[in-house]
Amino acid sequence: xxxxxxxxxxxxxxxxxxxxxxxxxxxxxxxxxxxxxxxxxxxxxxxxxxxxxxxxxxxxxxxxxxxxxxxxxxx
Length: 75
Known about the structure:
By secondary structure, this protein is an all-alpha fold. The chain has two helices and no strands.
């Protein structure tokens, strides 16, 4: 592989990583909003606690992912 093509590949990879992180962040924020809306609806409708705990678990996973993405973006 020539030096020029290797440099192009490395540069493209570096530029694509922030875009991927931003896209993942947007997707996770969207899913978090849906989960929060669903949790509110389930709670108002008197859903059994096991379903509410499951939804809370999904919300916790999304918040954990968001904190990881934030840590990567602030490096």
